[in-house]
Every structure is written in C-alpha cells, then in structure tokens.
Automatic annotation (TrEMBL):
This is Golgi apparatus protein 1. Keywords: Glycoprotein, Membrane, Repeat, Sialic acid, Signal, Transmembrane, Transmembrane helix. It is a single-pass type I membrane protein. It comes from Loxodonta africana (African elephant). GO terms for cellular component: extracellular matrix; Golgi membrane. Residues 1-27 form the signal peptide.
Amino acid sequence: MAACGRVRRMFGLSAALQLLLIAAAGAQKGGHSQGQGPGANFVSFVGQGGGAVSAVQQLPQSPQLQQPQQQQPPQPPQPAFPAGGPSARRGGAGAGGGWKLAEEESCREDVTRVCPKHTWSNNLAVLECLQDVREPENEISSDCNHLLWNYKLNLTTDPKFESVAREVCKSTISEIKECADETVGKGYLVSCLVDHRGNITEYQCHQYITKMTAIIFSDYRLICGFMDDCKNDINTLKCGSIRLGEKDAHSQGEVVSCLEKGLVKEAEERDPKIQVSELCKKAILRVAELSSDDFHLDRHLYFACRDDRERFCENTQAGEGRVYKCLFNHKFEESMSEKCREALTTRQKLIAQDYKVSYSLAKSCKSDLKKYRCNVENLPRSREARLSYLLMCLESAVHRGRQVSSECQGEMLDYRRMLMEDFSLSPEIILSCRGEIEHHCSGLHRKGRTLHCLMKVVRGEKGNLGMNCQQALQTLIQETDPGADYRIDRALNEACESVIQTACKHIRSGDPMILSCLMEHLYTEKMVEDCEHRLLELQYFISRDWKLDPVLYRKCQGDASRLCHTHGWNETSDLMMTPGAVFSCLYRHAYRTEEQGRRLSRECRAEVQRILHQRALDVKLDPALQDKCLIDLGKWCSEKTETGQELECLQDHLDDLAVECRDIVGNLTELESEDIQIEALLMRACEPIIQNFCHDVADNQIDSGDLMECLIQNKHQKDMNEKCAIGVTHFQLVQMKDFRFSYKFKMACKEDVLKLCPNIKKKVDVVICLSTTVRNDTLQEAKEHRVSLKCRKQLRVEELEMTEDIRLEPDLYEACKSDIKNYCSTVQYGNAQIIECLKENKKQLSTRCHQKVFKLQETEMMDPELDYTLMRVCKQMIKRFCPEADSKTMLQCLKQNKNSELMDPKCKQMITKRQITQNTDYRLNPVLRKACKADIPKFCHGILTKAKDDSELEGQVISCLKLRYADQRLSPDCEDQIRIIIQESALDYRLDPQLQLHCSEEISSLCAEEAAAQEQTGQVEECLKVNLLKIKTEMCKKEVLNMLKESKADIFVDPVLHTACALDIKHHCAAITPGRGRQMSCLMEALEDKRVRLQPECKKRLNDRIEMWSYAAKVAPADGFSDLAMQVMTSPSKNYILSVISGSICILFLIGLMCGRITKRVTRELKDR
C-alpha cells in the first residue's frame, strides 16, 4: 500500500489497459497512424508496452511488485528470453514492427487454438482472450501463462501508462480536482480515476479506465499494495496454494476469493481462530468495491458463474453492477450451479459488511446518504459502512416522511429482500442461531425458509430459541423492514400470493396495508394454511417492535414521543424497552376518557384499534401476554390449540393465574369490554346478527360496550348462530369475574362501588351489593338513593343479563351443579332453561340448591322483570296488555289479563306456573305479603314459628288465611288478595298447594279425566266435591270441606255454581255487593222464595251445595264457639236455627227462674229453724 501512497486506493494503477485494446485496434488497422491526439501516444505506448517484456530488467520495479513472485507457491520455471528480449529478436520495438504476443513461441499454439484470427495482431485482444479461458479442454500452457503475467506486470509499472491516461482523460482530469492535484509519475493518477470512474463522462477516458481494470484484477499480485497488506494473511489462510498442482497458474483471482471467504468466516465466528489483519480487510473490501461495476473484474465469480450468466442474464448488459444483480435474483433457481451460488453468496456477504461493494446501491443512494448523514467517508470498515446501518438510516428517513430518491428506495428494496432470502448474509444470525439452525432448520436454506423456520421456533411451535438468536432475528427484521413491503419476505410473498390476488387485490402491490389485509382475512375461508403460518411468524416480530408497522409508526410517532418517551426510528435506546411496551402504552392511552386526559390523536387511535383487532387473534402477537403467561399457558391451556382458545382459557382460569399474568389478562379483558371488536373471531361469527340487529352501534367509531350489549340482547334470535352465541356467552361469563370487565357498568358505577362496595371485585358480588342497597333505600322510602341514577340504570341492565344463564350467577351454579347433572343433563344452557328446569324439579333438589332457587324465585317475584323466561315468553303480551305497567307489577298485570281471549296460550301457561309458585309460599307473593302483613302473624303465628328460611311453607299460610276469609275475619286489603287467590285456585286445582299435596291420590283415582283436561276451569275441584263421600284420606277430605266452606263466603270462589247462576245473580242479586257471602245468601233466599223462579241448572247446583254444606257441617263440627256462630250465620236455615236456639234459651231461662225460687224457699226454711 505504501507504494501507492494512499490507503483509499488499493490498486496503484488499477484500470487502464482495455481501452488501449480499442484504441490500439484502430491504430493497428490504420497502419500505425502518425496522426495527432491521444491516438498517436496510444499506439506508441502499446508498441512500447509490448516491448516491455524484453526490457523487464531495465524498467523500474518496486519491491512490492517483485515480492509476489517470491510469495507465490512453486510454479513452472520462467521462460528464458534471449538478451535483448523478444523485441530485440523481432527488430526492436518500433511503432511499425512491434512485438506480438501471438507470435511468441510459448503462446503461439494457444493463441492459434483459442483466439479468433482477427485478434492476433492486437496484443490486448489476445491477452483478453487468453486470460478468460477456463474450460479444461482449452487451458493454456504454463509457459504462456507466465509470459502473460510478466507482460501485464511490466505494463502496469510503466510510467508511460500514466502519461497515456493524462492525454486520454485530459478533460476529465481537469473536472476532477482531486485527480488533477495528484503528483506526476507516482502512479496515483490512475488510482484516482478508478475511484471516480462513476463520474467519468468522456467516452474514451471511461473506456480506458474501465477496460484496463481487467488486467489488474486477473491477478492479486498486480494490484498495487495488495500483496504488501495481505501477504501474511495469504500465508496464514493458505490462500497461496489454492490451485497448487493445476495447470492454470495464471488465475490468481482464487487468492482474492480465498481471502474474502476468510474475512466472511471471521465475521461469522464468535472466537475466530484466524483473524484477517485490518489492513488486509480494508484491501479486500476495497478490491470488492472497485470490482463492483463489472462482474468480469471479480475473476473467481466470473469463472464460477460464466455459464449461469449465459443461462440467466444473457441479455443483461455488463457494467454498473447489472450482471451481479441479475445473478443475485436467480441465486436460488434450481438450475443455478452450486459454485456460482457460493460465489454470489460470498459477494453478498461482503456487501453486508460494506455497502460500497454494491455499485448500484452506492451510486443510487450516494446523495441520500450524504443528505441524511448516513455514511462517513473513507471508513470502509466502520459501522456506518455496514449494509444494515445504511438500510436502517435511510429507512428511518423514509418513515419520518423524508424524501428518499426512488432509485435508492428501489435498491434498498432489493437488498432488504436479499437479506430476508438468505440468513447466511447476516453474521449475527450465523453467530447467534447456529445451534438452532442445525437442530431445527437444517436443509431449509433457500428463499427465506430458514428464517421463517427460526421464526416458527420462536413462536414456540417447534421448540425453544435462545435469547441471543431471538434478538438477532428481531434486529434483522428491523433492518429488512418487511412490514413496509410484504414482497421483501419472499417466503411470505410466495405463500400468500393467491390470498393477495383474491382478498387484497384492491390494494396496490407493495403497499404496507397488504399485511393488514392479510391479517383481517386470517382464519377465513380465503386464507390458505401456508400463508397463515408465514404471516403469523412475521407478525410475531412486528408485534414486538411498534416501528415495524409503518402505518402505525407514521400516524403515531408524535403520540409515542409525547406519551411513551420513544426516540427515532433507528435509535437503539428503544431496544432497551420491554418488547411491545410502546404499543401497550399507546393502547392504554387510546381508551382513556377525555376526563382522564392525554388521549391519542384520532388517526393514531384508529390505527391502534386496527392493530388490536388483528392481533387479538393470537396470544403470541401480544408480547407481554406471552411473556408473563408462558407458564400459565402450559399449565392450564396446553390442550387449547385452536384459534382464540388460549386467551379464552386464560380468562376461564383468571383466578388461578400468576399475579402478573392475571393483571395482563385482566387489562386485556377490560379493554375488550370497551371495544369488543378486538375479538375479531367473535365479530366474524356474529356478523349476521350485527348486520341485522346491531348495525347502528357497530358503525360507531367508539364502541364503549354498546355492541356487546346489543349482541347479548339478541343472543337468542333465530338468526343467531352457535359460534356467536357461544362467544357472547363466554364473554358474559368472563365479565362475572370482575366488574371492571363490563365497561358500561364500570363507567356508570365505579364511584358507587368505591363508596358502597369497597374491596369487592367479582361482578356478581358488586351487583348484589348495589342491588341490596337500592332495594333497602326503596323499602325504607329514603329521601335520596345512595346509588346514583346512572348506576341504577346500568345496574338494571346487568341484573337482567345475569338472569339469562345460570352460569352468570356463580353461587347458584356452584350450589346446583350436581342437581343440574341429575335432573337437567339434557337441557342446554342459556335462555334460562337450566333455571327453569331446576324450578320444575324443586322438590327433588338438594337442600343447598333448593334454598338458592327459593331465594332466586323470591327475587324474581319481587321484580318480575328479572324473570327471564316470563319476560321472553310473554314479551308480546306485555306490550299488548301491560305497556304502562311498572316492572314490579308486571306479573300482577299479566295475571289480571290471563283469561283474555287475546292472551297467548304459551304466556298463559307461564303465568299459571308463576301463580303456582307464588301460592306455595306467601313470601313469593309480594302483593299478598304487603296486604296481609298484620293478618299473617295474627292468625297464622303457629305456622310461622315452625317455618324455615329459604324453604317453602307449601301454601300453609295461604290456607290459614283462606279459612279466616271464610270466617270473614281478615282486613279488607288482605281479604281482597285472598279472594283473588281463592278465585284463581278454584279454577285450577294446581294453584292450591295443600289440595295438591293431600289429594294427589284421589285426583289420580277419582278425577283423572278432569285433571288431564288442557284447560282447567274448576273441573277437578267439582269432581272432588261430588266425590266427597268416596274420599278416605282425612287430610284430603278436610281440604275439600274447606273449599266448600270458602264457597259459602263468596260465590265467585265456586266457578261451577257461579257459571250456573250467573243469570239469576244478574236478575235477582244485582244490587247486592259481592263478598262476605252476601250474594250467596241472596240466592238462598231466592231458592226458598217460591215466587222466584231460578234457572234449572242454578237451582240444581244450589241444592247440591246445600247437601254438601249439610254433610260438611256433620263431618266437620265447629272447632270453637266462633266457628259455630259463623256456621249458623252462614247456614241457609239460619232463621230456623236461630228461632230454635232462641226458644231453647227462653225455656232454660224459665226453668232457671223456677229453680231459683224453690232454692230460695228452702234456704229460708233452714234459717228459720
């Protein structure tokens, strides 16, 4: 290098001979023209150059140029030239009779055999022909090789070589100040011209400099200073004996190739055994750089790829690195030879170490590199020279919205694709992932398959990957930036081509939104399996660095800097953050309310939402979730491998998760509650329902929980598909674990929860706490409710939603699990079907479950709107009959309209069920409970003392009140309610629990036909009355007698008699107020009055009732004086009975008087004695 005087110029005289070929050829044809101008010196110089072989001892030679012969391995002896040399033999070196290579004895045979005849007179044409021979059958002799080498060696050291350059490139030198200032006669000028040959516009000069380079690059010993800088490395790496023993000693491009491989190998080893010296590294890279425009100059690659060039790049013009690029593009073709592929890979690795080794990249990006300060001049081994640094620096400018020339961006795209295609071009991957590649990914070298295999391992699908390897992969993904253009990732591009053509054809090729489009179609019918895998493998890394999504970065870089303290696109400080930390920060701010402040811009928020919606498809796309929940995923969810199942599994086991994992899953679930569209799979499954029923809320830019609320409300529509229903129910179940998971509930009630229900977390407990507070405030008629109005409204929604599925009430579900299995195993969840099943099997339930069901029924009866089944079955009837009814009086309103002709049969049946339930216990009838709150403890105290909480009294209290009603001893309000109950149960025996309990056998045996009737109108009760004498069971007989007793109190409670006598009541008793037996007494009087003619059916029924009452009076004597008096007063023969009783009293009085006088007389007589 010292001989050339400049570190930056490796070749001394680097590129000057093959233009002489052109000029000299013209001179030869013109008879050695004596004309003026550059041509004359050209011809003269060629002649002298040819004669330089004979004058080799006389020409000045530096030690650096002589040493290579000493350093070379043993070679055939030098040809002996006579004193004076060949030129002397042939008449000197005159212009007219110059020395000819073709006439030299050692080369004559080779020239005749290999070179076209028209080139024999031109030494340089012969030289080019002979040095490009590589076919085994055409190899030139060793003597000829040495003659050629001596010819080139002396030619490149001749001072006249520089003088020709000065004459041919006169105008160019004057334009390039650096070259004009070079010292004359030192050999620096041509080196300078080689450095600036990209800027040479003068045709002859450009050809001169370009063509001459081939001579220098044919042998490393001819490169000025190269031997000095690399001689020790050549020996250490044993590069001098590469072709030992072979005929072609002239092809010393193999030595440079060997050094290049040594340099590359060193970069790929953590502790290299052999290290290339710094001087030689610079020299190697400089050689590669200066051979970057014409692939002929890389002699090893030229010979290795000559056939491949003809096969793949036949029409590609040489120069400006075009042939290199063409061969790079075909590197992984099946028909590419292995030796060429290896040579291309080595050159690509050199480009990765120094971007200047790529002529097209260095030229296209020169101004951009300078503009954005991406390079440092004259430091080829510096960090700034690495391809990765250049790409990162320029990509940063692009991502910041700066202008980078289209030519440079095109070159960047090519080299980013190159790095993604071949992992071996990245030394960090080789260093950090060697073991993983050998273990998991051997044999997958081509077209980016190895990188995707490593990505697959990182995702946990094939094993584990070391942290260093993961970091190396992450760095490579940032360098190549495939998120900006999917075509950079060849494996992804090929796998997803069909999907892109069908699903994303509306998006411009290369647009970053192609990846977003592919994510939107993940797990859809349009997606193919191979594309799905490649896409998720790439997205795994993009999700860990927010900057790798160019659209997100462009729209959110300001927000990220302001809120998350990020730095520039290629700043390494961001790498110190936890993977995914910046995006986590962004989405936390995306869902803040205006009151919380510091929200994202609208553009950024929309972008964050888009990515959240896409990444929710796979837990591995959430770095924090995968990192913190790795152990829990293995522990609880190892079998949940289907799409979306892993997150659902974590949510199901929320209480069992480790603290950090639980927090992350909780935060994500809380986010979902606000924006359920994050659940992309659920949204796809529910698309028909959303379009039909929820399109208004779905179109809102801000969800705020409205969409999920709509889906819940329409969960049981006919259009609802199973997947959607299951997804919605699962989300409801997850919401029960924490009230924060219900966004609207949380926002409406968070202050109330903090104030009234602190330290309560589970939603069901919070709902109970707040509901209890609301109920107590209502019962106590508090002036001001403690629970705010907006919370009370949302609380109502939550209460209604919870009634739909027993699993939404965890305490009830846990208490009844075994009962569900025993009695409701065939019943599906949802639509409150399990709850309804438990109610129907209430008597068979376990004690704990029975108590919970009773409590549930008590709540539902107090607030019928919470009775999901009733509300669902009677929805239309409520609209028809009770549009103005309060939720608390809904059932009461339905009962009043139960027998309307317009009443839906299914609703009527459901109302009857609820009446049956109410009549089992007064506590299940809030209206009765309120009306009889004084009467119940007064008349039924004995029953209450025996009662148990959470257990039905089987109608005992109501039966007790019925008897008091017959005795006309109840308060007016209570009497009204009992009358209603008696009237209803008189029409349907099922509404009388005591009658059902004690007369079940009699009903089955005596009244089976009546009990089987579809419509109950009192047939069973009438049957039992008629068959009273056949009833053997005392308790049943007593119940029937009680019915008879009740009917005497009011004709309305005897439907058969009331129907038969309806006209007579209208004609004869219309003025009589109903109740207290008044209308019954009126009918009895009419029966006794011979002037009144009753309807035959009424008369018959009345006579039957008199007989029954008479029998009842005999069978069931009065329990006490009050009962006896009541029986007399309500008896049809009360006048007769009263006259008899009065006469008896008078007789007894007279007897008493008489007896009293006799005793008084006897007493006197005794005193007188």
